Amino acid sequence: MAWTHILECSDGSYHVGSTRDLDQRLFDHERGLGAAYTKTRPPVTLVASFESDNVEEAYLFEKQVQGWSRAKKKAIIDGRFDGLPAQSRKGYRPSVQDPGSANPNGRGQAPWEMRRGRPHWLED
């Protein structure tokens, strides 16, 4: 069992993390032994936690939520799961695998990016 957690820091910002032991991790954050981000923003308050079958799932969900807008994080904290798609950032587009992209991480290709490969004048 593992957890993805969202903490609200003293400045109102959110910290998203994952752990196998939620109680211990919260204790660490409260003592300033947690993440560097929360260390400078005490106290922290647990505002949401999500159980996963294993730490890999919790970590992957952590990384997904970290990329969300503040509005989308607030929606999940409030339990408004149906409204999550509407809270996406303006212009958001899902990843598209494009092996010919100048960006090998599969984020697609912006119009100004050049395709990989040989210049057309070198092709037979």
From TrEMBL:
SUPFAM superfamilies xrefs: GIY-YIG endonuclease (SSF82771)
Entries under InterPro entries matching the protein: GIY-YIG_endonuc, GIY-YIG_endonuc_sf, UPF0213_domain
Annotated stretches, region: Disordered: 79-124
Annotated GIY-YIG domain residues: 1-75
Biased composition (Basic and acidic residues): 113-124
Family: Belongs to the UPF0213 family.
Name this protein carries in UniProt: GIY-YIG nuclease family protein
